[in-house]
Amino acid sequence: MEIKSQYEYHGRLWNSHYVEGDPNINLNGIKLNGVHCICFYGDKIVIVYEKKKSMWSPPGGAIEPGETYEEASIREVMEESNMKVLYQETIGYQDVNRVDDNLTYRQARMFCIVEPYSDFVVDPDGDITEIKLIDSKDYKQYFDWGESGDRILERALEIKASLKI
Hints:
- By secondary structure, the chain is an alpha+beta fold.
- The chain has two helices and nine strands.
- The model has no long low-confidence stretch (mean pLDDT 93).
């Protein structure tokens, strides 16, 4: 499945191209630089609040040098939510570029089953100040990634159902 769309973020226009599959294919000079994870703890989805941006989103962030996107997802989930990834699976990836300079970024989209290490206090960078467990049907009250976000969540729910947990 592929979805192409356009949206505004921080006053700039962006193009988005969502693709299901391996984020390492067809890079064509694009750097895979980030990851976001749709994490389930029981029947709830984990979301995090970034105070500087005043926004909720799934846990995620940059892929560090020498790190795979799978390793980055485990680290980012731990740092941002204080949760351990018990299982993960790739959903796909999203190429985004700013319309005004055509600089393209690729981010992996992951499905994760998680459990807390202990209570969340704050992430090591101090960016995430709160986590919340929400029903999947309520996600657009917190973040809206448009048509591609709808498909990412739909795919995550399909993966979860296939695991029969």
